[in-house]
């Protein structure tokens, strides 16, 4: 992938917003990769959890919002428990989801769910899915 | 000890086997619980965004009801309810600014909320109040020869400051199974995520996780897998149908709530155990072991 690194991107309001929503200091991450090593969802991700952090560090807003990794993250919090720098990666994932959802870009579109999809699962699944995937 | 019981949505719908078996077991142990009056949704998932206080209104309202009931503790069975209620309680205990915001928003509830409700999971009640050594003496039908792999999932143990046991290697379910006379089976996937709510829009992910988790338990010699979360239970049990389609070598595994195993050991009638609500029938293996 060809990328363009610039001060402008690194100091973009997007990075500030992620830090604010997640409550995390993104530059504390030194890219050891422990979060990705323990993540049970990596096989479904296009970029790894440590790369999500790296994209934020470099202000790669468009590339990050295009990826599906932050939607695949189910907030199991394994990464948070293992990060040697105490960074809450799951909170960063939530911040990226929130930035997308707050522009009313729902990931799960409720009207397109079939009756079968809605009926076969317990209420706990529907409510948590809608809480995480819709605005 | 006065215990308020918070059931949550799924225990009143798909997971009646969880609720009925737990309530029967509590009765056998002589513990009185009273269902929380006017309880509402716990919120199911704790919002991880710093400014998202509105999503904590649901758990906090339940916590206020628990305070009004003057209970010593609010007890949940569902791991997701436990996590959301306990985390919300913890957040507003520690963060005075957020507490002030939510109290001003919720003034119709008529009681200021201070983050001072004790939220417990049933497993904590059994471990710390009843104590496993006393529980073992009340066992009328030991789960002899039953190999039980205990699956914790995420929200019973993470985050560390909320979890009810060690974050990487919890033991409470294994210790409970030992007290009931079963053989606990250790397996490396016991705290790996089941895929949770992705079961709605992407059941394939969940079926793949189910394959990993249950194959791992099977390879360690488990007869059944014990769970404490109705979403894990649904994913691991019902999604075995999709798992079989994806992996021809997959062998089905019965999923039971820990409370159903507790209920068998304490002599609860089979009507309270509700084995009819399972997708993968646990009765054959339980019959083979002489437990039902």
What does this structure look like?
The complex is a heterodimer of chains A (135) and B (292). Helices cover 54% and strands 0% of the residues of chain A. Chain A has helices at residues 7-10, 13-22, 34-38, 49-57, 61-66, 69-72, 78-82, 89-101, 115-120, 123-133. In chain A, helix 2 packs across helix 8. Chain A is globular. In chain B, the strands form 2 sheets. A 4-stranded parallel sheet of chain B has the order 2-1-3-4. A 4-stranded parallel sheet of chain B has the order 6-5-7-8, with helices on both faces. Chain B has 14 helices and 8 strands. In chain B, helix 1 packs parallel to helix 12, helix 2 (57-68) packs across helix 3 (79-94) and helix 9 crosses helix 11. The longest helix of chain B is centred in the C-terminal third of the chain and has 17 residues, at 203-219. The A-B interface holds A 20-23, 40-41, 43-44, 72, 74-78, 80-81, 88, 90-91, 93-95, 98, 107-108, 113, 117, 120-129, 131-133 and B 8-10, 13-15, 41, 43-45, 47-52, 55, 78, 80, 154, 158-160, 167-168, 191-193, 195-201, 205, 208-209, 212, 230-231, 234, 238.
Element layout with pairings:
The complex is a heterodimer of chains A (135) and B (292).
Chain A: H1 7-10, H2 13-22, H3 34-38, H4 49-57, H5 61-66, H6 69-72, H7 78-82, H8 89-101, H9 115-120, H10 123-133
Helix pairs in contact in A: 2-8
Chain B: E1 3-6, H1 16-28, E2 33-35, H2 57-68, E3 73-76, H3 79-94, H4 96-105, E4 119-121, H5 122-130, H6 132-137, E5 147-150, H7 172-179, E6 183-185, H8 198-201, H9 203-219, E7 224-227, H10 230-238, H11 240-246, E8 255-257, H12 258-266, H13 270-273, H14 283-288
Parallel strand pairs in B: 1-2, 1-3, 3-4, 5-6, 5-7, 7-8
Helix pairs in contact in B: 1-12, 2-3, 3-4, 9-11
